[in-house]
Amino acid sequence: MLTAAEADGLTVDGQSFGGEVRLAADPGPASAARVAYGERRLVVLVREGAWGVRDFDPESSARRAFGGLRVTLYDQRWAVPGRFTPYGTGRTVRVANADGRERGLGLGLGGELAFALEGRELSLQVSLQDDGSLWAVFADATSGRGSYRFRFLRPAAPDADGLTTVDFNRALLHAVRLRRSLRLSLPATGEHAGRRGGGGGAHAFVTVGRGYGSRPGAAS
């Protein structure tokens, strides 16, 4: 329930507001939030039964001070062929999240993406997206030691033979790198620094070599 006087300067649905209104969680982007204060958008959200408000302020000091991320030039060595093998059924793995809690990460009709990098056979657990592309959360030997602790990878849709390109130049940092309030999944336990995790199977935790933390999209 939002209670405010017109003198507070809030707007609801674009109109000056005074009184009480019951709000639901905002389903769309921040720009579509019902409640605003000038250019700021107050997004109502609910996570696991807990309600909150996220304040999007385009003039925040942190945003104005942000100078960008360090990247390097594209390096063909980090783009290698891969083969996708679907699981055949839906699968969920237990992973830690950025807020410190462990949750199930649904891979849907995902599978294993196998590839070779610098002479080593590696693999990622990936989910299959609606457009046919793949999605993985991964870490490498630099993660947490010179670069951020995880990144995302979005290989293109595999062809009829399951072939696609695994291009680590295209690895992405999520906004959680810049905003700690977000809740994101960390990589599942697997291969790290040459040691295999227990249980066998696909591995979402891979080592991709020295200096990777400064690759495009994977800045520290």
Automatic annotation (TrEMBL):
**Pfam families, per database record:** DUF1684
> Where on the tree of life does the source sit, at the highest rank?
Bacteria
**InterPro entries registered for this protein in UniProt:** DUF1684
* Protein name as catalogued: Uncharacterized protein (DUF1684 family)
From what organism does this protein derive? Streptomyces luteogriseus
